[in-house]
Amino acid sequence: MKFLYLFIDLLTIAVPLLFSFYPKIKFYKSWKALSKAIVLAAVPFLIIDSIFTSHGVWGFNRRYITGIYLCNLPIEEILFFICIPYSCVFTYYCLNKFYDISWNKKSENIFCILFSLILLIAGFTFRGKLYTCSTFISTALLCMVLKFVAHIKWFGKAVSVFALLLLPFIIVNGILTGTGLSQPIVRYNIAEHLNIRLMTIPIEDFVYGFELFLFNLYFYLRFINQFPFTQYLITDFEENETKRHLEHANSEWNHNQKK
Fold it and tell me: Is 189 within 8 Å of 57 (Cβ atoms)?
């Protein structure tokens, strides 16, 4: 059982890693950009993870880990911030490549504002609970900055992809928090979160997972422009977007003509 957390990490990345070499996907060609994004995004999360572990916000059950640590974090926890982002960004890439998952601008803006306001209100209301407060407020600020300062055009796509990722998220995070086990792999201090759970998963974990996804996706889509061998990926993205905009314009024109 000491390898359970490690096994979960490796199982999470196994299928996306294998299909990265599929001829119609060729996701491996963007590994340089992705690795840079994962490392950069992981730094603040690992720092906070280490601080929270030191202050007893959460901890790790020695029964399910190998006992190899870097600072005060088990190696499996560090691998978590590599395996999960890889799988999530891979999923986004595939869905965006083969399907139209875009939102209109108005819907994106409304969802982002309402979602962020709910998180901010909840975060400040429960400011005495460190995990709840920090996760809700930081995620709300990240959403607002990305949408209205960085002016990203893929916020709605990210929401759609994360919604589809909820099933594997619930399976993986469910096991980590104790579903099907006699004891959880990751233990949470009940004083630092709302103790509202889906099965064994604290509600804060869903928000935390979305924030992690947004961080990695933002840096990935920024860095992918820096490497010549990934230009074909950018071309694919641009061609898909152009095609969708043209189809929408044609539909509008045909509708107006019928009038």
Answer: yes
Radius of gyration of the chain (CA): 20
Round to whole Å and give the CA distance between 197 and 190: 11
Could you please report the per-residue DSSP string of 83-138? HHHHHHHHHHHHHHHHS-----HHHHHHHHHHHHHHHHHHHHHTTTSHHHHHHHHH
Coil vs helix vs strand at 69: strand
Tell me the two tokens of residue 248.
Answer: 């929408």
From the list 42, 26, 18, 29, the residue with the least C-alpha distance to 224 is: 29
> What string of DSSP letters covers 164-213?
HHHHHHHHHHHHHTTTTSSS-SEEE-GGGS---EETTEEHHHHHHHHHHH
Q: What's the whole-number mean pLDDT along residues 15-27?
A: 93
Domain boundaries, the chain: 4-227
SS3 category, 59: strand
Report the predicted TM-score, pTM, of the whole model to 2 decimal places: 0.85
Q: Is 195 left (phi over 0), alpha (psi -120 to 50) or beta?
A: left
Q: How far, CA to CA in Å, does 25 sit from each of 19, 28, 159?
A: 8, 8, 22
Helix, strand or coil for residue 55?
A: coil
Check: CB of residue 135 under 8 Å from CB of residue 204. Answer: yes
Phi, psi of 202 (to 5 degrees): -60, 145
Residues 64, 2: contact at Cβ < 8 Å? yes
Residues 30-52 have pLDDT tens digits of 999 999 999 999 999 999 999 99
The whole-number average pLDDT for the span 131-149 is 97
Please provide the distance, in angstroms rounded to a whole number, between the alpha carbons at the two ends of the chain: 68
